[in-house]
């Protein structure tokens, strides 16, 4: 049996702030998966199951389940065998049972749920005494052609609201809440969740822990001892390249080349778009010499209301409050902006605005 050490990740810092929504970002091999398994096992010893979320149903595989079983068996003095219906994997909701360490009876250990299935199907699951939720790999990497689900944060709210009803500690301790832990690698600091919680991106640096009313974000930085150990075991980490910066140092590599700045007086509001309920203003440089400048457009959130400007949206979900559904007929109006995007001549107020523009760029 392998024992837990003090050089890999532990949630004692973020748990100390006692928030319901906990976002944990770290380089690879920091030990998040092992820590998650430890949390799941500790809850199971109290006869409480855990919910694990994956974005896509296809992320739930026998190999993933086997890896969780292998991690548990590394750190407990037993040889657990998971019991589950293999046919449920493709359905997107998988209940996993195993023998309880004290009762010896087969009990529900965890439920793995794919967020990409219909909300109604997720809400129909009744999971008694579920203790906590983990969202594994909550940050996507756009370089790998990955994408977030439509209205992913809204979907997560439905899931949390459904499963918190059976939180076992609610009746024992009034005011206590079920926690959800988001775990991800730092491809970028942006996600629908950091956006929804209004996390200040400029402060999300390796080694920081930020808090709000109901959330905490930990940008975990590995200790030198662990870094040295990992470098000895993996030759890919011995070079000072982009992969090492992300996977070992925890640097959000996809954000490094995003041009950030402030709105200048010589920019005029050209367009307003609505992306999943958030208004973004697209400003054009009105300087007579702008043709020779590399800062031709500026995008920022919450532009002023302008009765003379249509607010373009890209989904019927956002077609409200005077918005206009974008049509290819308007495409010619965006030609100069699209050219500026292709040539990297656009600045942004923050990282979130950049990724929201990227999200709708192909529609323009």
Explain what the structure shows.
Helices cover 26% and strands 21% of the residues. The protein is globular. The longest helix has 14 residues, at 32-45. The protein is built from 11 helices and 14 strands. The protein has 364 residues and is of the alpha/beta class. Helix 2 crosses helix 3. The mean pLDDT is 89. A hairpin with a 6-residue loop joins strand 3 and strand 4 (106-114). It has an 8-stranded mixed sheet with strand order 3-4-2-5-6-1-8-7. It has a 6-stranded mixed sheet with strand order 13-12-9-10-11-14.
Number of helices: 11
Give the averaged pLDDT, no decimals: 89
Largest sheet: 8 strands, mixed
Secondary-structure element pattern, one letter each = HEHEHEEHEHHEHEEHHEEEEEHEH
DSSP, total strands: 14
Principal-axes geometry comes out as globular
Describe the strand arrangement of the main beta sheet, using strand numbers. 3-4-2-5-6-1-8-7
Q: What is the strand content?
A: 15-25%
Q: List the uncertain runs.
A: none
Spatial gap, N to C terminus: 57 Å
Helicity range = 25-40%
């Amino acid at each position: 049996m392998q024992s837990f050490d003090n050089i890999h990740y532990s949630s004692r810092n973020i748990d100390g702030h006692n928030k319901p929504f906990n976002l944990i970002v770290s380089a690879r091999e920091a030990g998040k998966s092992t820590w998650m398994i430890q949390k799941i096992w500790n809850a199971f010893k109290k006869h409480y199951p855990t919910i694990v979320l994956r974005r896509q149903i296809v992320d739930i595989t026998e190999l993933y389940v086997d890896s969780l079983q292998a991690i548990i068996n590394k750190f407990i003095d037993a040889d657990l065998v998971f019991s589950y219906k293999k046919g449920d994997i493709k359905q997107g909701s998988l209940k996993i049972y195993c023998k309880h360490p004290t009762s010896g009876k087969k009990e529900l250990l965890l439920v793995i749920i794919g967020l990409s299935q219909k909300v109604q199907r997720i809400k129909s699951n009744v999971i008694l005494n579920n203790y906590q939720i983990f969202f594994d790999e909550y940050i996507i990497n756009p370089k790998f052609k990955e994408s977030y689900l439509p209205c992913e944060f809204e979907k997560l709210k439905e899931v949390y609201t459904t499963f918190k009803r059976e939180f076992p500690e609610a009746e024992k301790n009034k005011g206590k809440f079920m926690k959800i832990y988001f775990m991800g690698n730092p491809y970028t600091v942006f996600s629908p969740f950091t956006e929804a919680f209004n996390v200040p991106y400029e402060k999300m640096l390796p080694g920081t822990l930020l808090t709000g009313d109901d959330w905490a974000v930990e940008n975990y930085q590995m200790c030198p001892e662990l870094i040295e150990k990992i470098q000895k075991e993996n030759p890919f980490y011995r070079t000072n390249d982009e992969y090492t910066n992300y996977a070992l140092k925890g640097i959000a590599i996809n954000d490094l080349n995003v041009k950030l700045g402030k709105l200048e007086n010589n920019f005029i509001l050209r367009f307003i778009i609505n992306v999943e309920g958030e208004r973004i203003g697209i400003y054009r440089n009105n300087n007579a010499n702008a043709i020779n400048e590399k800062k031709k457009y500026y995008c920022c959130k919450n532009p002023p209301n302008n009765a003379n400007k249509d607010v373009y949206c890209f989904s019927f979900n956002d077609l409200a409050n005077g918005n206009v559904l974008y049509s290819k007929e308007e495409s010619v109006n965006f030609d100069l902006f699209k050219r500026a995007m292709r040539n990297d001549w656009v600045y942004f107020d923050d990282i979130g605005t950049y990724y929201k523009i990227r999200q709708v760029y192909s529609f323009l």
